[in-house]
Structure to design on (237 residues):
């Protein structure tokens, strides 16, 4: 693999390593070998180090003196803390979008929602693709909300959220369909400029995701990860 855009090289490397962490190809507490990554991507170790600093800011790796970068561990406490913060940020984004959207700005959101609905209706669901595509709605809302501090914070959180969401739902397609129903409800609440409904939907979604992931992590520690998601029933509406 060879990258062309020198000005965004560290970001491209971070995306490459980050995707391996999100999908579990790089496991928690596993060391990220700079030399190996540099060889795989035909880039310098300095560029890899820059990428790892980005990933540390995105809560995917921890960097230690004399040990280098290690994939961040996943604990139930991490899941609870992450989703509590993420829910607050997501609700703020949706409320700002509801307040500020102008004519024709909602059409791309509605089109992307229809795209997600088609993906989630497939018999074979590509978990990695749907997790990534789900953030497309957030990306469309960010310029409407027009808050650079919120944008930077959410962009840094999305990688850790993607990792946890993929881990907990990759074997349960019903979770993806539930997520798409959630997205649909939020888009409708944004269209109606209804902050109360936005707050309720985001709170319910975050609580469900948090319960799902905490159950998964606790069960994984006990050696029964296969049935972990079954302890958090998927809401039907």
């Amino acid at each position: 693999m060879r990258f062309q855009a020198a000005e965004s090289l560290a970001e491209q490397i971070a995306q490459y390593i980050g995707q391996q962490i999100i999908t579990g190809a790089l496991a928690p507490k596993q060391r990220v070998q700079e030399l190996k990554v540099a060889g795989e991507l035909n880039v310098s170790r300095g560029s890899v180090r820059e990428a790892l600093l980005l990933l540390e800011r995105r809560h995917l790796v921890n960097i230690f003196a004399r040990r280098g970068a290690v994939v961040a561990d996943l604990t139930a406490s991490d899941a609870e803390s992450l989703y509590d913060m993420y829910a607050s940020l997501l609700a703020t984004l949706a409320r700002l979008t509801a307040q500020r959207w102008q004519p024709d700005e909602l059409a791309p959101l509605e089109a992307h929602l229809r795209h997600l609905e088609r993906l989630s209706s497939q018999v074979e669901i590509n978990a990695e693709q749907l997790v990534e595509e789900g953030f497309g709605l957030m990306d469309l809302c960010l310029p409407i909300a027009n808050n650079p501090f919120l944008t930077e914070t959410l962009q840094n959180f999305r990688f850790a959220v993607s990792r946890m969401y993929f881990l907990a739902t990759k074997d349960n397609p019903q979770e993806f369909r539930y997520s798409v129903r959630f997205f649909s409800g939020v888009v409708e609440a944004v269209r109606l400029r209804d902050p109360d409904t936005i707050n309720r939907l985001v709170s319910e979604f975050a609580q469900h995701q948090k319960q799902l992931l905490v159950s998964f992590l606790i069960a994984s520690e006990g050696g029964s990860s296969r049935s972990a998601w079954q302890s958090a029933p998927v809401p039907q509406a």
About this structure: Confidence is low (pLDDT under 50) at residues 2-6, 223-232. Residues 6-71 form a domain with the Arc Repressor Mutant, subunit A fold (CATH 1.10.10.10). Strands lie at 61-64, 68-71.
